[in-house]
Amino acid sequence: QVQLVESGGGLVQAGGSLRLSCVASGIIVRRYAMGWYRQAPGKQRDLVASITSGGSTSYADSVRGRFTISRDNAKNTVFLQLNSLKPEDTAVYYCNAGSYWGSYSPLDYWGQGTQVTVSS
After folding, report:
1. What is the rounded average pLDDT of the residues 78-104?
2. Alpha-carbon torsion 36, 43, 108, 11, what sign?
3. Which end of the chain is more exposed for a tag (fewer CB within 10 A), N or C?
4. Cβ of 106: how many Cβ atoms within 10 Å?
5. Are 93 and 9 contacting, i.e. CB atoms less than 8 angstroms apart?
6. Which residues of 18-55 are buried (b: 16+ CB within 10 A; e: fewer)?
7. Cβ-proximal residues to 38 (8 Å cutoff; 6+ apart), any chain
8. What distance in Å separates the CA atoms of residue 24 and residue 22, rounded to the nearest whole number?
9. What is the pLDDT of residues 40-89, one digit of tens each?
10. 104-110 contacts at long range (C-beta below 8 A, 24 or more positions apart)
11. How confident is the model at residue 115 (pLDDT cuts 50, 70, 90)?
């Protein structure tokens, strides 16, 4: 049974930083592409960052240069470092396991989400 458990969200002022964690069980994260999505109220869930099994990363234009995705194989954990946060980054952030063939494609493995709120 696959479980993805996110943590690290919270309330932060604009310009601040957070580090999100996604601990996986039932899968080996280094064998999958992993992604972080976010969903703001009333909006669709969007991909913000992904990392392939080979370690290549990609980012949405809105977060490139501010967010960093990484992976700790020994801890079977994926991270998302959020820097220079803006109020528009406010959302529930979700971890996902997927595949990558030219672009990231999510599998139906989702965490419960962690809330990030950025105040102005």
Report:
1. 96
2. positive
3. N
4. 17
5. yes
6. bebbbbbeebebbebbbbbbbeeeeeebebbbbbbeee
7. 45, 46, 48, 89, 91, 92, 93, 94, 116
8. 6
9. 999 999 999 999 999 999 999 999 999 999 999 999 999 999 999 999 99
10. 104/33, 104/35, 104/47, 104/50, 104/58, 105/33, 106/35, 106/37, 106/47, 107/32, 109/2, 109/4, 109/27, 110/4
11. very high
**Tokens (6 digits) for 53:** 């099994």
Contact in structure between 81 and 70 (CB atoms under 8 Å): yes
Contact of 11 with 115, CB cutoff 8 Å: no
User: Residue 119 corresponds to which tokens in the numbers above?
Assistant: 């105040």
Pairing of strands 67-72, 46-51: unpaired
CA separation for the pair 99, 120 (Å, rounded): 36
Identify whether the C-beta of residue 77 lies closer than 8 Å to the C-beta of residue 21.
Answer: yes
